[in-house]
Amino acid sequence: ARTLQSADSLAPADPRVAALKRHGFVHARTEELWRTSFADMFPRLDRVHRRLESAGRLAGHTVTPLAEADLPEVRSLMLAAGLLTPDHMFLLPEKDHTSAKGHHAALSPVVRRDGRLVGALLARATGGADSGSVVFEAQAVDPASIGGFDVANHLTLRGVAQAGLAAGRTHMVFSADTAKAPATVRMARRMQGERLHEFVVLIRPLG
């Protein structure tokens, strides 16, 4: 069924929320916008990495930048998780830091185990190289993959942190659905992230 979505990021207490509900809109989700520092993230991720490595849980895993050849599988993985749409999933030119869609290969790690796709994180750079951020738009892992959800999850996060630091970026910005992605919110808190604001998304069924 088709729906109409509210265009603005509305705070839960914004009076426009009540006005939209009077016109047939219903609450779809509540999201939180977070900012995390790569300098704060990486030491924690590195400690987890060493523990996983010592336990032999990283065997067979590879982490590579997103390539054109990966896109069909990555699109399928993201769509299966209910994330993004195909028109959002494409590679941006390296120097394009203004687009609101698409992703940079170097900042979008793809995780495989024994050649099989088990996780991916899609991100893009925005702003100047000295002050810009990395916008983390979507992350999906195959929970049925051998090695477990936590390994692919960890490797995608560590991959984007490594790539962000290598690119001279200082922080990552992302939003999380508080109902569907509580683990992402918990991760942001563990990484000493800063919650920038909370907003609601409203939709209205069409026909």
Layout of secondary structure:
Elements: E1 3-5, H1 15-22, E2 26-37, H2 38-54, E3 61-65, H3 71-80, E4 109-113, E5 116-126, E6 133-141, H4 149-166, E7 171-177, H5 182-190, E8 194-205
Parallel strand pairs: 6-7
Antiparallel strand pairs: 1-8, 2-7, 2-8, 3-4, 4-5, 5-6
Helix pairs in contact: 2-4
Question: Which features would summarize this protein structure in a list?
Answer:
207 residues; alpha+beta
What does this structure look like?
This protein is an alpha+beta fold and 207 residues long. The longest helix is centred in the C-terminal third of the chain and has 18 residues, at 149-166. Helix 2 (38-54) crosses helix 4. It has helices at 15-22, 38-54, 71-80, 149-166, 182-190, and strands at residues 3-5, 26-37, 61-65, 109-113, 116-126, 133-141, 171-177, 194-205. It is globular, with a radius of gyration of 18 Å. The protein has an eight-stranded mixed β-sheet with strand order 1-8-2-7-6-5-4-3, sandwiched between helices.
